[in-house]
Each structure stands twice: as structure tokens, then as C-alpha cells.
Design brief:
Helices cover about 40% and strands about 15% of the residues. The protein is α/β, with parallel strands linked by helices.
Length: about 350
């Protein structure tokens, strides 16, 4: 067994794709998910241990008030907070579906959702990325009583938005339950950052939405937005909620404050301005993302090319992590550039100069 571990590590070292932990405090940030810069806002809180899971000693008035505010703000019947987006997706999907159900998911869906599907007993198939024809083909073949469609509103490894309205229409046509992970669109799209489902006025029509607070909101935790009945079911059967120590009570207060931050609309405006400036100055066929996405992907389709460009960026003071396979499929290796409201034009010009000089 020990040799198997060592062999796997040595294989990654030889391929130049061994993961390791780095810090980037002194570098230009085109890397983090802190799209609005809210993680940099000083917060004074006195953190106390929550002492147990929500169903034991870890529940609090702050947690319950936070969930009520979240549900009201995003236009949902009810909300349930988990400690992270990963634990949410694993616990939500795995307990929601049974062997009598069918799950259809976009092939670019996040790993946490794939893990949740893997822990469930449902039959599952992927459909081609944002491909309505392939999705409908599989919906037509369905013989299961319940069908769930799982998508992201903004995909973190392509920087592309989903065909949200068209997929919603298909879910209605075939009586399927649509679950939308808005981890990367919440706080960034829509009035007050309420996300793409809210922007397109289907927020109260989809089966469930998943939002996170560790990206645009600069904190931690995540929430399911769904019906009263669905949330009650999760409280009773979602293992990653039931058996996890609750967040400290003051974190819930911080979440409530950040989603209601009065500067969010102006921060979104600054972020959009930075994206517009970048796309006006840099146009390249390797850039595959939607122009309004804070995630911009330079797809080089080679570990070696990705590694070389990453080094050039780091040498210019722009910290980044190259995205190798198996994080993405082979031939989709890329540099993932994240834009923020706080980036200035000098920083963007530095980025553009490096990309222009080194993109093949």
C-alpha cells in the first residue's frame, strides 16, 4: 500500500503536475474567487465555538435569523446553511435521490456535485456541456419516476454561463426537477448580486439553488434555497449537515451583513468595467470564456504550455495556479484568470502584456 502511494506521487512529480500549497499575499491577484473584494473588508467579531452540530448544541438564534434573511433576500421559501459548498453538494445530492431516480448532469459540473451523485443510488448520465440537444435526447429516453437536472449557472473551469432559460424550459417540458449551483454567479450577476436565476426570474420556479459565501462574499459557508418541505427533508436526512459541527454563531451574522452590503451594486459595476477593459485590449482565440464572466480561461491544451505561461505570469508578479489534468480533462489544460472589482488598470495592463507576449 505504501508503495502505491509513493508511486502515485512520483508519477505526478514526473509529469510536473504535483499539487502543493502556496501563498500569494504579495502578488497581484488575478487568482482568487474574491470577485468583489469583500474578504478584505475588516470585520470585528468574537468567535466562540459552536460546541456541536445544529441538531444538538450547535444551533443558535444567529443561525436561524441568518437563514430567514437569506431566504427573504434571494426569494426562496426557506434556506439551510452548510459549512461549505462541497459539504452541501455532497450531502444534498446524495440524500435527495434514490435508485428509482435519474440524474442528468452537465459534463462540466463541479467535482463536489459528482461526488454527491456518486454517493447516491440514482442512475446518472452526463450530457454534453451546455448542449440542449443532448440533454433533450436523454430526457426523451427517461423511464424513471423522478428526473433531476444538475447544472451550474456559471462554470468555474470554462468561465461560461449555462443556457439557463433554455434548460429551465426543457425541465418544465419533461417534468424534471432543475437544481442550479450558483456558486460563482451569486454576488456577481443580477441586481444586488442575487444571481442568474433571480435575474431571469426563475428563482422561485427551479427545484433548488445552491449559493456559497466563500467566493464573492469573501467569507465561508453555503446555503440551499428550496421549499420548506425540501429543507425539512435535508435537516432529517442530509448526513453532511446532521453530523457536522455548526459554524460559530457570529459567522452567520457576518454572512447576513455581507449579502446585504450596500456597496455590492457599485462593486459589480467596477468588476464589469475591468472585464470590459480587458476584452477591449486583449482578443485571442485561446480565450474561451463569456466576456461578462469574472472567470477568464486561457485554454492551452498542454501541461507544458500551461506551466510555461504560469511561470511567466508569476515572474511578472501575477500569482496563479495552472490548471492541469486531471482537474480538467486532457487537452483542456488552462490558465484560469479571475477578475475583481479591486483590480486596477495598471494591473490589467501588466496581465495583458504578459499574455500578449506569451500566448501562442
Amino acid at each position: 500500500m505504501k508503495n502505491n502511494f509513493l508511486n502515485k506521487l512520483e508519477e505526478r512529480k514526473s509529469k510536473g503536475i504535483l499539487r502543493k500549497l502556496d501563498s500569494f499575499e504579495s502578488s497581484i491577484d488575478f487568482f482568487s474567487n474574491d470577485y468583489l473584494g469583500l474578504s478584505k473588508t475588516p470585520v470585528t467579531v468574537s468567535l466562540c465555538g459552536s460546541t456541536g452540530s445544529r441538531l444538538l448544541s450547535g444551533n443558535s438564534i444567529e443561525a436561524e435569523q441568518c437563514e430567514k434573511k437569506i431566504a427573504l433576500f434571494y426569494g426562496s421559501e426557506k434556506a439551510l446553511v452548510y459549512n461549505s459548498g462541497y459539504s452541501l453538494n455532497v450531502g444534498f445530492i446524495s440524500c435527495l435521490t434514490t435508485r428509482h431516480d435519474l440524474v442528468l448532469y452537465d459534463e462540466k459540473i463541479h467535482a463536489s456535485i459528482r461526488d454527491g451523485i456518486g454517493l447516491s443510488s440514482a442512475k446518472s448520465y452526463s450530457f454534453k456541456h451546455n448542449n440542449l440537444i443532448d440533454l433533450e435526447r436523454q430526457l426523451k429516453k427517461n423511464t424513471y419516476s423522478n428526473v433531476f437536472i444538475l447544472i451550474e449557472s456559471l462554470y468555474s473551469m470554462t468561465g461560461k454561463c449555462s443556457s439557463l432559460l433554455d434548460i429551465y424550459d426543457l425541465s418544465k417540458k419533461y417534468n424534471a426537477k432543475l437544481i442550479v449551483d450558483e456558486a460563482h454567479s451569486i454576488g456577481v450577476f443580477g441586481y444586488q448580486g442575487k444571481g442568474l436565476c433571480y435575474h431571469y426570474n426563475i428563482h422561485d420556479k427551479v427545484f433548488a439553488r445552491v449559493i456559497t459565501f466563500g467566493k464573492a462574499y469573501g467569507l465561508m459557508g453555503a446555503a440551499v434555497l428550496a421549499s420548506n418541505q425540501t429543507i425539512d427533508y435535508l435537516i432529517n436526512f442530509s448526513r453532511s449537515f446532521i453530523y457536522t459541527t455548526a459554524l460559530p454563531s457570529n459567522i452567520y451574522a457576518c454572512i447576513s451583513n455581507n449579502i446585504h452590503d450596500s456597496d455590492i451594486n457599485s462593486l459589480i459595476h467596477k468588476l464589469k468595467g475591468n472585464l470590459h477593459y480587458f476584452h477591449e485590449k486583449f482578443k485571442h482565440s485561446l480565450l474561451i470564456s463569456d466576456a461578462n464572466s469574472p472567470i477568464q480561461i486561457i485554454q492551452l491544451s498542454s501541461n507544458k504550455k500551461v506551466s510555461l505561461l504560469s511561470k511567466k505570469l508569476i515572474d511578472s508578479g501575477i500569482f496563479n495556479k495552472p490548471i492541469f489534468s486531471p482537474t480538467v480533462p486532457e487537452n483542456e489544460e488552462c490558465i484560469r484568470i479571475c477578475f475583481h472589482a479591486f483590480n486596477n488598470q495598471n494591473e490589467i495592463d501588466t496581465l495583458i502584456n504578459v499574455l500578449t507576449a506569451n500566448c501562442p
